[in-house]
Amino acid sequence: MRHWNKKYEKSLEKEFNRLEAASREVIPPSAPPGEFENIMAEMERRGIEPKIRKELKKRK
């Protein structure tokens, strides 16, 4: 069983290295202008409070 695990780990390592090399060249597209503000406005409309705000309130 150990032999199988080592082979599996080696294959995962090769796959990870391949994906990492491929992703270095990819440049993610930027978000459309005003997207963040639209999301925050929708959260406000639905009454959703961002988690970071809740954590900051607990610390005070």
The portion of residues forming beta strands comes to: under 5%
Discrete helix count? 3
Euclidean distance between termini CA atoms: 53 Å
* Radius of gyration over C-alpha positions, nearest whole angstrom: 22 Å
Q: What general form does the structure show?
A: elongated
Strand tally: 0
Could you spell the SSE succession in H and E letters?
A: HHH
Low confidence ranges: none
Q: Estimate the helix proportion, in percent.
A: over 70%
User: Structural class of the helix and strand makeup?
Assistant: mainly alpha
Quaternary structure of the protein: single chain
Mean pLDDT score, rounded?
85
- How would you characterize the largest beta sheet? none
Blueprint (SSEs and pairs):
Blueprint lengths: L1 H23 L10 H12 L4 H9 L1
